[in-house]
Design goal:
Helices cover about 40% and strands about 25% of the residues. It has seven helices and eight strands.
Length: about 160
C-alpha cells in the first residue's frame, strides 16, 4: 500500500450484528477478515463492483482487482468461491468523492460495514468515511509530507 492511500475493509454487517468485534480481526501484520466472511460467495459482489471501477491487474488467481494499485482500487480475495476479504484503497492525492459515495452505496446495498481498521471503527456513512480519510496517516502525508516523514523518523528512533 502506498503511503498516500487510505485503506478500509468491508465486512458483512450481519457478523457485527451477531456480536463480532472489529478488534478480533486485528493481527500483528494488519488484519484478517476471513472469519467475518465465512460462507459468503463473491459472485454477486463482483457483479456489483464491476460498475464502480474497471477491472485491474491481479497477481494471484485468488484475487480480483478493480482499479489500479497506484491510485484507487478494490481488492476481493476468495478461497474456494468464498470471500475472505474485501478492501478498498483511496488515493488521497486526488480524492474521488464519487468513489467514496460508491463504496458507501455498495456497503448499504450489500449489507456490509465499511471499517477503518487503523482506528478500529465502523465508518459506513459518507460523512464518517470522508472524515476518517481526512484524519488518516495518508492524509497527513499528502498535506504535509515533511512533517509526516519527520514524525515517522522520530517514532522509528524511539523504538
Amino acid at each position: 500500500m502506498a503511503v498516500w492511500q487510505f485503506k478500509v475493509a468491508l465486512i458483512p454487517r450481519r457478523w457485527l450484528n451477531a456480536g463480532g468485534e472489529i478488534a478480533a480481526l486485528l493481527i500483528d501484520e494488519g488484519w484478517e477478515t476471513a472469519s467475518a466472511w465465512e460462507g459468503v460467495h463473491g459472485e454477486a459482489l463482483k457483479s456489483r463492483i464491476e460498475g464502480i471501477l474497471p477491472r485491474g491487474k491481479s497477481w494471484s488467481p485468488s484475487l480480483t482487482v478493480w482499479g489500479s494499485a497506484e491510485f484507487n482500487d478494490i481488492q476481493l480475495f476468495e478461497e474456494g468461491g468464498c470471500v475472505e476479504s474485501l478492501n478498498v484503497r483511496f488515493d488521497l492525492r486526488k480524492p474521488d468523492m464519487g468513489l467514496f459515495k460508491s463504496i458507501v452505496d455498495l456497503a448499504q446495498d450489500c449489507g456490509l460495514a465499511v471499517v477503518d481498521m487503523a482506528r478500529k471503527r465502523n465508518v459506513s456513512d459518507l460523512n464518517k468515511l470522508v472524515r476518517a480519510a481526512a484524519e488518516s496517516e495518508a492524509a497527513h502525508f499528502v498535506l504535509d509530507p515533511a512533517s509526516f516523514l519527520e514524525q515517522l523518523g522520530t517514532s522509528a528512533r524511539a523504538t
